[in-house]
Amino acid sequence: MSKLNETDIQGFVLRGYNFPLARYMFLHLADDDRAGQFLDRLLPSITTGEHWDDGKPDSTVNIAFTHKGLRRLRLPAASLLSFPVEFLEGMQARSAVLGDTGRNAPERWESIWREERVNAWLGVNAMSEQALESCCADMLRIMEETGGASVVGWQDAAALKVDGQLTTKEHFGFTDGFGNPDYLGFERSTQPGQGKLMPDGSWAPLATGELLLGYADEGGELPVAPIPHLLANNGTFMVYRKLHQNVAAFRRYLEEKGRQYVGGKEKLAAKLVGRWRDGTPVELSPDSPDPAIVMDKKRNVNFTFGNDNAGTRCPIGAHVRRTNPRDAFGFEGRLTNRRRITRRGLPYGPYAPEGAEVRDDEERGVAFMVLNANLARQFEFVQQQWIEYGNDSHLGNEKDPLLGNRDEGGSFLIQGTEDPKNPPFLCGALPGFVELRGGDYFFIPGMTALKMMSTGTVDPR
Amino acid sequence: MPNESGSVYGLTILSPIIDDPHARISHDLQLRMHLGALPRGEDSPFAKVSSTHMARLTVMNDVVYVGMPACEEHLQSQYLVFESNFDGDLDTYLRRMATEIPDHVDSVWSHCIGYPGAGDVAAFESYMKKCQLTTTFYFADVNDKTVQQTLRALQTQAAVASFIERNQGKPAAELQNAFTKFLGKLRAAPDPRPGSGKDQSI
Amino acid sequence: MTNITGKTYAMNAITPMKPWKTWILRGFFFLLGHIKPLQADLVNLSFIHFARWVVIRRDSFPRLSAAQPAEDLQYDYLLFFSNFNGTWNQYIDAFSAVLGKGLNLVWFWSEKYPGAVPVTPFKQYIARVQFETDFYYTAYPHATTNDVKAAHRVQQALDTLADGSGNTSPAEFEQAYVRFLVSVQRDLGSTGLAPIGV
Ligand code: HEM
Q: How many domains does chain C have?
């Protein structure tokens, strides 16, 4: 494994920036040379994975393209056709595969996603309002001066302020941002629990090719990637999904079922997600939150399900057990290692304090992004098989209790024991807590590729 | 017997398809069209031969050339493949096919060489056995339950889940009462229909 | 799509083998049939209802009349039929990830078999030797083999509870009911439609 060239990789891929503010601008590109000119002018502003020796910058800029966007940038036909089919099709065309039907169907999406006018995602993260506005103004100037791109929509997102404090909470009140895979060659010191499980019980980083194109993956080959290599290398694919959260429905459900469930409302919430609201993994501490675990990097993501096959600690259908089953399917976790995804994103909409009046039609949710080398094998698989279906965990057609796309109510079983303090409990009549408002699939090229794209020098084969 | 696993039998049949140079539409194509239009759910002919867990019919029109340095070769005949997984023994199964769905069987196998018709059950059985291949290795995940037991169990499972939900938190006496009623209803429910993919609500 | 009925996919594959290798393969299958642990992985993966391998000698294709031309082949053939749950990609990914060694022992004797790892050439090979299913029936289209096994466990637990519930007091019944709940609580997922293949 050679060392990664961090200055060729967009920074957003290598690290979650942990900035409090973001604006994701959705661009329509000009159908001529001006699109390349715009990209060329933009290049110096793009944030790479370079070291921040002088401290964090005030803002960051990153860019990604839909397949339509790449066409507008005049990539050679051989390259355009060599992209994986799911990227070529885009997220809307994949709605049947993803279970984005009914209330999540494209007909219900915001118009910019329905009309598929989005060619590029321009992500700006910032430390302050002022930095955000000034950076975005710079971007708009480049667009205007080159005439190569225009903004067709944007999404503001921000870390939630709870009691005046910036947090990493999402709207349902859970602390987020724990589970994300470690990859070989990445700077970040590895945390036990983040990579893949080894036969001796230790954890090792995942192969780089599970995230970045051009490196070996867990299957011992290079990820499927567009030609030529230079176009693909150090790039990755991104899913953007605007996920609306029905906070009122969620709170109402917890209140109602929390009264029936012996463990009460907070334990019920913890069982749905697999973490207590403060982030304590339920698997490690099933009866109460434990701040000491949350603070301890050696413990807060370090758990397995192999000794809890019955799900009496962390329910088999809990959100984190579904989306990262670790060793739950046996075979030393080998059925999980090629289904890992890296999560990015921030909430949008103001936090509604507990007890305050809250309505489901208020703009509130998460601008959810996933990075992975192979959209079909990683994101789409997790979404289709583990969130919208249950067969791998022997749960039949049961869906993720938090995310399942449902109109008519579903159920979620909290496994328990004969101890009256921890009985089995069936959560029936689940409403849809989360709804999809739109999004698409993007390619995040490396810096060399961006340069080639902006100057029209991708080898046409 | 390599064709069996527990109480399940794995039948593999390769029936050569008639090659008639004068046919306006060749028999393999006629077969494909016919097979493509056969109902697959509870109206399927195999739902009537109710010991069938799973069955498929397809035209194998040739062997496959896998490329250099392997050599290219081709079949002289095309074959109808019948793969079935059913309860019980072969003779009973073939007899059921011949007597319970004779028209369907005729409309499929009449495209095959030497087919005697389902009307003569003994001739039919001996024809099918001539076309039978012995399985080299057979795997059946559940090999001790009949189709009817499985359909019942699936119905029970769905009913139990909804019973649990409806009666969660009820006092003991009420729960016991409800259970007795539930059990009566469940046992009185008619057998679920093979191929329907639905469980009746109890 | 014709290969799919409900939650189950019908796969057919045919691969050529040099005749002398057929005997080795038969030997392997003999072992597989008689050494249970070899089958354990198939059972643990738990996404195949029924599967079979059929070796057909080059001179033993059924011939029903003198008018039917005899086959004139150099290779024996290995036929594979599987009734599996999940999508095509999922099935082959899982095979490659955890059953690679076992599969290699089965298909190693077939011409041009690339090995089960890495998965891309393996998938290309399967795609080449697979042929489609024209008609496919299952008696329980709404159930995977996991669903079937779970349902039988529920049935058994229910029968046990019912047998013991004749003359019990409500309190005793409640206790038995909790035991019943705990014993079936992993087996209650509903049946229904499967997600579609990609
Ligand atoms: C509004 C939507 C969502 C909410 C509120 C939500 C909430 C959470 C929470 C509270 C956690 C635990 C904290 C952590 O481990 O970082 C978590 C973890 C996770 N979620 Fe979600 N999530 C949402 C959507 C999704 C979607 C759509 C996916 C996948 C497609 C997903 C995949 C994951 C993964 C992979 C983890 C980490 C599991 C681990 O590594 O242990 N989430 N989510």
A: 2
